[in-house]
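User: Could you check the structure of this?
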Amino acid sequence: MTERLPPLTPTLLTRLGPAVADYPPGSVFGPRDGGSYEFVWLLHGSARWVCDDLTVPLTSSALQLVRPGMRDTFHWDPRRPTRHAYTHFRLPAGPGARSPSTTPAGRSSGT
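Assistant: Sure, the predicted structure tokens are below.
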């Protein structure tokens, strides 16, 4: 039987979203050091997300989770503008809390 963890209520960091951002073709954002959790939702275009030795291709409707402490870079679509939505948040510490390093980083909408 799987252990049930208590629900966690995230705290949104309103100065860091939720918002929508547009990037012209070929733009690069980063490298940067993540200070909080961030969901990045690709709305139009594509991107490559690079973190250390990991490169993840992102297509429209992809949802990427950036964890605190990650040093990452987004390489936006080289041929067309890219639009994404994002929000930053924190999770409470305490019983049942996950370590940022064990939280899955990404999932496409089809899985």
